[in-house]
Structures are given as C-alpha cells and as structure tokens.
Amino acid sequence: MTRWRLPLLLALLCIALQGLGWGEALRYERALVGSEPWRLLGAHLVHLGWEHLLLNLIGLVLIWALFGAALRPWAWVAAFVWCALVVSGGLYWRDPALGWYVGLSGVLHGLLVCGALASWRREPRSSLILLIGLGAKLAWEQLAGAGIGTQALVGGAVIVNAHLYGTLGGGLGALLWVLGRRWRHRP
C-alpha cells in the first residue's frame, strides 16, 4: 500500500476539489495567470465533471501500475510539477486563443513518458512500444483532433495540445534528469 500513497493522495485531492466545486477558482485562465499564478498548477487538479475526473484517475492508476516503482516518490512529485508547468506554459505561449483549461490528462501524458523512460533499462521493448504508441496517438490527435465521443464523455472540448505539451515536458524532464545525474557523477 505504501507504493500507492502518492497516486491515492492525488486522487483524493482531485476528488475533494471536484466535490467542493473549486474548478473555476483553480482552472488555468489565461487572463488571470499573471495575477493568480496558482492556476498554473491548480488547473491540473480540477476537471470538467465527475466523468472527466474518473477517466483521468483511471489513467493515473494505469500509469502507476505500470511505472510507479520506476522512480522515487520525490521524483514523481517533481515530474508532476514540471509537467504541469510545461503544459500550462505551452498553453500560455503556444495557444493564445485558449481562454481556460482544466484536467490532468496533459500531465498524465508527461508522467507516462517519464515512467517509460525511467523503465527503459529494465523493460526496453515495452517502453519502446508504449512510446511509439503514444507518438502515434499524439500524431492522430494533431491531425484529426479529439474524437467526438471522447468530448461527449468528458463533457467538453479535449485540448489535444495539452497532451502534446505534457509529452514533450515528460521527455525533456527525463532528459534533464539523466543529464543532471551524469554531470554530478562525472570523474
């Protein structure tokens, strides 16, 4: 049970915020992030509705089941914060027409990449297959957009660029982590 402490805490936090109706107070809102910077992280903890939250929590459980042991808890927390900031930064600088955003899915894409890359030495084939599949999914989303069924299920627009930014953030974060470790351990 100790291994599941972090995703359980994250799930409980998201459920509590959803139940309290804090979505508007925490969501990424382009016009407010300068004066309310907590929205850069808070947006990833609130959701469009219970269905959206449930789908994101299922994704969290799957990622944790696959890769939870790949990194230490502090590294997962750092990866979460990093990916959240990269997603929010990407939305701010690359999607100026987007007024607001909520959801965990962009960060989950980044965490999936972090987990797959952290597991590369132990499971190179599985990690490669997963990363190729993720790349294909992202390419499809960029070309065709989100499926209408998915949008109906979550109760609103799916911001596919958040998935792209999260994935890029997860990859860049893993690269920086590896380079940092090598730099600290150089002769």
Descriptive report:
This protein has one domain (2-184): Rhomboid-like fold, CATH 1.20.1540. The model has no long low-confidence stretch (mean pLDDT 94). It starts with a helix and ends with a helix. Helix content is 70%, strand content 2%. The longest helix has 25 residues, at 160-184. The chain has 187 residues and is mostly helical. A two-stranded antiparallel sheet has the order 1-2. Helix 4 packs parallel to helix 6. It has nine helices and two strands. It has helices at 5-20, 23-26, 39-42, 50-67, 73-94, 105-118, 124-144, 148-154, 160-184; strands at 28-29, 100-101.
Helix percent reads: over 70%
In which order are the strands of the major sheet placed?
1-2
Named CATH topology: Rhomboid-like fold
β-strand percent reads under 5%
CATH superfamily: Rhomboid-like
Task: Estimate the global geometry from the Cα principal axes.
Answer: globular
Number of helices: 9
Contiguous runs where pLDDT drops below 50 for at least 5 residues: none
Largest sheet: 2 strands, antiparallel
Secondary structure tally: strands: 2
Give the termini distance in whole angstroms.
39 Å
| H/E element sequence | HHEHHHEHHHH
Structural class: mainly alpha
Q: What is the CATH-assigned architecture? A: Up-down Bundle
Radius of gyration based on Cα positions? 16 Å
CATH class: Mainly Alpha
Average pLDDT, all residues? 94
Q: Give the number of domains.
A: 1
